[in-house]
Design a protein that fits this description.
single chain; mainly alpha; 13 helices
Length: 202
Amino acid sequence: MTANAHSLIAELDVAIDQATTSRQSQILQRVTDLFLSDTMRFSDEQIAIFDDVIQRLIEKAENPALITLSTRLAPIDNAPPNVIATLAQNEDVAVAVPVLTLSPVLTDEVIAKVAASVKGPRQLAAIAGRGRISEAVTDALVDRGIPELIHKAIANPQARFSEIGFVKLINRAKTDKPLATAIAARGDLPAELLPFLNLALA
């Protein structure tokens, strides 16, 4: 880490608690700029420092600063993981959606937690359209029972469904022919469930 980085980190313990909201936003922007300026060269230990510092800063940050932070960090492969998890669970859609849509850092546990708990359809739609969705996440989406989200997830070739998830989907497909057709178009339906899907398609 550069001398500039060490100096900035050293300032923060004193500055964060004493700073006004405006000053904290400035510090947050500077720390984020520093991280993004050379992100691929930071070690895991250094990223953990950024994670801790940014996490402290966002505790009192206003939404415009959080939206900017979320948008900037969302596509970064080694973004601070705790910060990303916090942003993903923010109640403000504009804060949560960028990382829910794009972040490769989000764990399946966090995504599934958000999918099971949030009320906003935009957060759920962002999750359903992610580049990769695990079985735990699709289980949570299926359990929410929102037709448009279920259709979006089943149409996502990178989504993986558990066997119990497929069972629930086939049960829904009995009264939803487009869903039955979409399930049939996938190549990962367990063979033992095919007869039940055929009944839904009949």
